[in-house]
What does this fold into?
Amino acid sequence: MSVLIFIELDNGSIKKTSLETVAYGAKVAAQVNGKAVVLAIGDASSAELEKAGHYGAEKVLHAAGEKLAHENSLAYADVLVQASAQEQSQIIVLPKSGLGDAIAARAAARLKAGVVSGVTALPETEGTFKVTRSIFTGKAFATTEIKSEIKFLVVRKNAIEIDEAGLNTAGATIEPFSPALRDADFQANVVDVEKASGELSLTEAEIIVSGGRGMKGPEHWQALLDLASALGAATGCSKPVSDLDWRPHHEHIGQTGIKVAPNLYIACGISGAIQHLAGVNGSKCIVVINKDPEAPFFKSADYGVVGDVFEILPRLTAAAKAIR
Amino acid sequence: MKILVCITNVPDTTSKITFTDNNTRLNKAGVQYIIGPYDDYALARGVELKEKTGGTLTVLHVGEADAEPQIRKALAIGADDAIRINAEPLDSYFTAVQIAAIAREENYDLILMGRESIDYNSGVVHGMVGEMLGINSYSPVMKLELEGSTATITREIDGGKEILKANLPLVLGCQEPIAEWKIPNMRGIMTARTKPLKVVEPVATEEMSAPVAYSLPAPKGACKMIPAAEAETLIRLLQTEAKVL
Ligand SMILES: Cc1cc2nc3c(=O)[nH]c(=O)nc-3n(C[C@H](O)[C@H](O)[C@H](O)COP(=O)(O)OP(=O)(O)OC[C@H]3O[C@@H](n4cnc5c(N)ncnc54)[C@H](O)[C@@H]3O)c2cc1C
Ligand SMILES: Nc1ncnc2c1ncn2[C@@H]1O[C@H](COP(=O)(O)O)[C@@H](O)[C@H]1O
It folds into this structure.
């Protein structure tokens, strides 16, 4: 019996959130006396994949090749089904993301398995199998029993603490995996991919500096970008900001945008509407800068500054540069 | 063109969430229910495509009778008829089996859903239905154009977007800006009253998972306010106290 852990690759590197997923899966494997096996699909060097061992994986199955180089949830789900059969996996762990959910959905339908998406903690594996997930966009939790023989867990960022100092020194063994590919999974034709290159991805970022309508217009964003660059942070925005085209749509955070869970979220001129909070309530620490002391965001914040963003931001940038 | 739009019936985004029966059931008292916001995008685009292609649009909900006002609203927005599968949907697999059972009989060209339901936020029902029907599924879709039986789909990916062409039939999970939400007009509301709403019993299937208890997050501690004049100290506190820098 094994725990199969799907990881996401980005330009040949394991995504940071996926390393967390590996650590999570390895802990589950230890709980059930199983083997932690990672499945990596796409191009990556062996040296990179061995890193999964530091987070507790014994082995990495690596499926590469031209057809699998581009993200394809249909083909990836099929590969995962084949890997789970080979490894006799009863628990399958994936990172919470568009890709993680899509693969889990298709593979679980094939394997007749229950899926719990948005998992926030390790499962209870003695007796009935139970796991806790986030529901109502972070407003509550549900403890869910999974009754099927095979169980899919799609795990949120920050579901477990990782002790970076206590990582294994040994790397994982890498085993090439050559699944049979079905033509039907390659029926769609990818015409174009537009990706902001060199930008830190919001879902991966440890720090996010985000701006709202209080930033007054795209021409004022430099002050926010400066603080982000001083902190090594990604940048985000509220919905009206992307609706007004001040910032690109993929930066929009909240209920109808991206959900993020950084260590530090700095909100500049964002009122803190419930739909915005829905996207940030997984953050470890929230800082709010707003000129209105009554702004609802302060109720959800850890630190607050009442003041004018245009006056505060350059001073925070200078202070951040001083400690780096 | 036969289009199916699957809608959820969920608490309004601003609702306060509480539980009853020893934290085993959602407290529905005083909660305003709505069509899931992503499902509303799917519905809006579905109505546009139906009008453009001269097709039909059926709206489907797996859930109990208290969803009927929301189903009627979807009819008022432009769906031709509706199906309600009479069961409490507590498990994605169960829900997907029910949707797939209807879809197998009706052979829809396009099945539109929301990217995720805002109660369970799973984002898995579309992929499951796609797999159960043996057809392709994509999510989250920001733009959808049809030309004959080919769909051009703009999909959000991490840090950007991907444009792909795929043949119908398809299952798609939708999000903005695929279409503007539609508000029912008076004529729509009047005609919706007499449009067919069929209630069917669920097909038998195994229950793969079930929620057993609910809880609320621990209350947040008070926000530490830093005077604007000393804003610089924030950086030091983030480093030494919060330990996030
Ligand atoms: C179904 C639905 C889904 C939604 N989804 C989302 C979502 O995913 N994400 C999202 O963000 N919103 C979403 N919204 C919109 C949301 O309700 C709010 O309207 C939005 O978040 C407000 O954005 P804002 O805080 O930038 O703007 P505002 O509410 O206009 O707030 C601007 C803030 O800036 C402050 N300010 C102004 N000038 C300054 C200054 N010089 N210095 C400091 N502070 C200043 C003001 O005091 C104010 O608090 C959704 C709404 C609905 C109905
Ligand atoms: N009970 C339901 N009835 C009809 N459609 C549903 C139901 N649950 C989920 N869906 C559809 O599946 C999408 C994704 O839901 P989920 O996987 O629960 O996040 C939703 O946006 C709906 O379009």
Remarks:
- The domain at 2-216 of chain B is CATH 3.40.50.620 (Rossmann fold).
